[in-house]
């Protein structure tokens, strides 16, 4: 109770800094969400697809290309990686299909050749993926029953004719979900920056040499003290989290009272727990109040740029996204991206989301363990 009272006292003594910094972060977050253009809106009822055919244009290969062409907008782009990458970046295409050499011969033999794809991972690309998957699945079904290729293709096309027209009839409100995703992605920066700044500011008081020595000679176990401080730090972090959730209801609207909205909220709560332990660990490592702003810039800004908070992660180079995997922010933002494209929410479809949240909990445990080790070492040195 003494630790908690002291924490509240220090928090209240810094209330103007807390209020000023929190308000600045919230305003920045709102402006970012309001001014950021929605990049996933589209007016076409068909996905934009680029097909790069490395096989001969006949038989099953020709049939596949015709089926995709009849149910999508086929784009013509030079087969150069730079131009293809630009097409994905600027959403000139949603989906790229690379048909491999000898696809027709290998498929008819039953070897199931690999068709490589590149995708923008938005809703139109899902439609494109469904088109490709549907043709391949139907083709596999009849392959072992019909030996003549012409009859085989006729049967495939006859089956597919029952549902050849593709309309994007999604029940999702893509506009609102994109708005929510943008808001919660940006909250990666504000949650990190706000929590690290305030928690570290408060922790410098507890790290004061005089107070630290009094704590060491007392009967208080360092693990117990850390637990109390983490719980106290949670007050500010979860208050900031709740403020963000309230603002999301105001700005995003009815989407936040849906299943998608609930998943966004749960993801933010899980991330907040991780942020608390990150902030607490950093607070244990520094006693310098002047250094806190620099730490905020390095960690909060760095994580946000690397993990897709400011720039969508699909626009970032591959080596950057590989580095981002070691940061908790990557898994938080990845979950937001996955929530935004969920058509149906079931146990199966949210498995990747649950996996991402488990990874965040693993990060939390790691940070707690490291903090306890550092605390024990500091007590030994003192």
Q: Sheet bearing the most strands, described?
A: 4 strands, mixed
Radius of gyration: 26 Å
Shape: elongated
By secondary-structure content and strand pairing, the structural class works out as mainly alpha
Percent of residues in beta strands: under 5%
Number of helical stretches of at least 4 residues? 15
Write structural notes for this entry:
- The protein is mostly helical.
- The protein is built from 15 helices and four strands.
- A four-stranded mixed beta sheet has the order 2-1-3-4, with helices on one face.
- The longest helix is centred in the middle third of the chain and has 33 residues, at 174-206.
- Residues 37-44 have low confidence and may be disordered.
Structural features:
15 helices; 4% strand; mainly alpha; 4 strands; 382 residues; four-stranded mixed β-sheet
Secondary-structure topology with pairs:
Blueprint lengths: L1 H12 L1 H21 L12 E6 L5 H12 L2 E2 L6 H9 L5 E5 L3 H7 L6 E4 L3 H21 L5 H12 L13 H33 L2 H9 L4 H31 L6 H27 L6 H16 L10 H7 L3 H13 L10 H31 L1
Parallel strand pairs: 1-2, 1-3
Antiparallel strand pairs: 3-4
Helix pairs in contact: 1-10, 2-8, 3-7, 6-7, 8-10, 8-11, 8-12, 8-14, 10-11, 11-14, 11-15, 12-14, 14-15
Short description:
This protein is mainly alpha-helical. The chain is built from 15 helices and four strands. The chain has helices at 2-13, 15-35, 59-70, 81-89, 103-109, 123-143, 149-160, 174-206, 209-217, 222-252, 259-285, 292-307, 318-324, 328-340, 351-381, and strands at residues 48-53, 73-74, 95-99, 116-119.
């Amino acid at each position: 109770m003494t630790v908690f009272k002291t924490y509240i006292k220090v928090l209240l003594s810094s209330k103007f800094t807390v209020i000023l910094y929190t308000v600045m972060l919230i305003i920045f977050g709102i402006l970012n969400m309001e001014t950021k253009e929605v990049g996933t809106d589209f007016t076409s009822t068909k996905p934009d697809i680029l097909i790069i055919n490395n096989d001969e244009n006949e038989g099953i290969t020709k049939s596949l290309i015709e089926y995709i062409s009849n149910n999508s907008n086929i784009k013509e782009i030079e087969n150069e990686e730079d131009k293809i990458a630009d097409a994905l970046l600027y959403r000139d295409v949603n989906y790229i299909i690379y048909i491999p050499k000898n696809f027709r011969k290998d498929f008819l033999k039953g070897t199931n050749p690999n068709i490589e794809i590149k995708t923008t991972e938005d809703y139109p690309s899902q439609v494109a993926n469904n088109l490709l998957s549907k043709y391949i699945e139907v083709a596999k079904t009849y392959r072992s029953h019909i030996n003549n290729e012409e009859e085989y293709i006729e049967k495939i096309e006859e089956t597919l004719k029952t549902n050849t027209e593709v309309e994007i009839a999604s029940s999702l409100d893509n506009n609102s979900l994109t708005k929510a995703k943008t808001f919660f992605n940006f909250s990666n920066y504000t949650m990190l920056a706000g929590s690290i700044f305030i928690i570290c500011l408060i922790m410098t008081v507890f790290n004061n040499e005089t107070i630290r020595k009094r704590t060491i000679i007392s009967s208080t176990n360092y693990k117990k003290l850390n637990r109390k401080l983490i719980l106290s730090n949670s007050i500010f972090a979860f208050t900031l989290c709740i403020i963000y959730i309230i603002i999301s209801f105001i700005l995003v609207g009815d989407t936040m009272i849906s299943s998608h909205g609930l998943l966004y909220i749960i993801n933010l709560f899980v991330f907040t727990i991780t942020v608390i332990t990150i902030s607490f660990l950093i607070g244990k490592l520094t006693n310098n109040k002047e250094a806190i702003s620099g730490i905020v810039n390095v960690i909060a800004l760095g994580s946000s740029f690397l993990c897709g908070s400011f720039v969508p992660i699909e626009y970032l180079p591959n080596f950057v996204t590989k580095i981002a995997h070691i940061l908790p922010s990557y898994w938080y933002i990845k979950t937001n991206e996955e929530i935004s494209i969920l058509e149906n929410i079931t146990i199966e479809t949210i498995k990747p989301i649950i996996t991402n949240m488990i990874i965040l909990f693993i990060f939390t445990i790691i940070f707690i363990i490291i903090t306890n080790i550092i605390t024990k070492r500091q007590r030994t040195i003192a």
